[in-house]
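Exam prep: given the inputs below (a chain plus 0GY), describe the expected output before reading on.
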Amino acid sequence: MTEFAMDADWLCFAGTPARPRFRVPAHAVDAHCHVFGPGDRFPYAAERKYTPCDAPKEKLWALRDFLGFERNVIVQATCHGHDNRALCDALENSEGRARGVASVPPDVSDEDIEALDHAGVRGARFNFVKRLVDARPGHEYHGLARRLAGFGWHVVVYFEAADLAERYELFATLPAPLVVDHMGRPDVSKNPDGAEFGRFLALMREHGDIWCKVSCPERLSRTGPPDYADVIPFARRVVEEFPERVLWGTDWPHPNMKSHMPDDGLLVDFIPNIATTEELQRKLLVDNPMRLYWPEEMD
Ligand code: 0GY
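Solution:
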């Protein structure tokens, strides 16, 4: 595959996904995906923990159209560090059909936030996954979240379920709307009614303004494709209890997947198993992401 960077250390995304059986509703938003590089134009961060395959914006637009989505939310991943140029380049070339979530340092200037906002960024991602980033002191997150909220931004948090207990207080009190990636990465071999997922559901109930991406069955599942059956009870639980606060995304190009590369068509076919009515599907794929990322287009 030509998309491989010279030193890529993870699998390249599948070039030709299956055509999904599930037709997403009109105006659907893929609310979690990435662009990488191309590395010769937008170099990868020196401090990165993995090197991706190049995944340029043109490939993302082609996937969007093939799967039937109208828009994308592009999330900055750790391999680009705080350098949001590839993200902004994609947003500025999306004809208004993409918005972004950036990664910014604690001392980011107001001017830099404004420039990112102008490009289409509406949030910042705080990554707590220990294999991806080095930890920062807790107080930095509070001050930064407060500043970002002042610009109308939200904060996306990415963490693994085993680490939620130590971060629970921080997340519950962050002074900004919060979006959790991939349901806080539950261990789906455990009981969805058990203590671990119960802690996550408690956070969803406790934080006044918290949203959840019911995404990434391919990272969570032990039973695997085509159905990712073991993830369904977890995702369905969240969709049914919090129908106004769930989002979904492909996670294309599936960074850092070392065992298998998912078929994005099968991932789309996962949606009706977790959002089982047309009304839930419309909230998950259209109403909720539009409210968060394109509020000016909502009534
Ligand atoms: C994801 C997942 C991963 C990577 C990143 O920022 C990142 O590097 O998010 C992962 O390795 O689990 O959401 O794209």
